[in-house]
Amino acid sequence: MIKDRLPETKVNSNEKVTVSISVFFPCYNEQDNIIRTVEQALNVLGELNAVFEIIIVDDGSSDATGQIADEIAARDSRVKVVHHSTNLGYGAALQSGFKAATKKLVFYTDGDGQFDINELPPLLPLMEQCDVVSCYRLNRQDPLIRRINGWCWTKLVCLLFGMKIRDIDCAFKLYKREIFDDFEFFSAGALIDAEILARAVCRGYRVTQKGVHHYPRTAGTQTGANLRVIFRAFKELFRLYSRIRSEHR
Fold first, then answer.
1. Beta strand extents in the chain (DSSP E only)
2. What is the Cα gyration radius of the chain?
3. Which of 51, 139, 195, 223 falls between 20 and 30 A from 242, CA-CA?
């Protein structure tokens, strides 16, 4: 069952709770963003009294992203890097991040800096009552056509799978890692977020939602609006629908 709201969780600000969390960033040609993004994550997680790891997934970048990521990891043992020798797609990058994660909670956001990881800590108390926090973008900072495409995609996915998610592809999500223990991923492309949420809901995991701010991209180039990526996602969507229906008959 999808829950749009959960009762407010009260946390004693004087009580330090150790959080076990893996944070990963799927990256493709983000050489101008990755240092700032990882530094912000290190600062936020350090203040949380968290047991954590940061994972950079370099999805076959053709720029210096992979090299910079390795340099960051060499300086800080809390950071590790997963490399794809070629660009395998967004879904494959997420799969690699989930597989590399070793902590109790798994959070991911894109390495392009369009989200503020300072908005991660308020999600953590929600995990006491749910298994997934699927965020939605407040004042989405993308071109109009991309926003229209995103709205239509979300409505279609929710219609097919009987969900009430406001923003399927928002790259700011928090999971309990255990839900991936019995997942067999189907999508290596843009369908990945829809697949995870659909499978989680079908298996009875509890999902809640929360708005987070979205910021303009300051460097790099977006790839999600590529027509080839979009057509592949639609093709995979209907195959996934048939597969999930057959699995839950």
1. 2-3, 19-27, 50-59, 79-84, 105-109, 132-138, 172-176, 207-213
2. 17
3. 223
pTM, full prediction: 0.84
CATH no. for 19-247: 3.90.550.10
Distance CA 200, CA 40 (A): 30
Token couple for 197: 């949420």
The torsion angles phi and psi of 34, rounded to 5 degrees, stand at -65, -35
The per-residue pLDDT string of the chain (249 residues; one tens digit each, 9 = 90 and over) reads 444 433 333 444 444 557 999 999 999 999 999 999 999 999 999 999 889 999 999 999 999 999 999 999 999 999 999 999 999 999 999 999 999 999 999 999 998 888 999 999 999 999 999 999 999 999 887 888 888 888 888 999 999 999 999 999 999 999 999 999 877 888 777 789 999 999 999 889 999 999 999 988 665 455 555 667 777 777 888 888 888 877 766
Q: Provide the token pair at 137.
A: 């973008």
Sheet strands side by side (includes 2-3): 2-3, 207-213, 132-138, 172-176, 105-109, 19-27, 50-59, 79-84
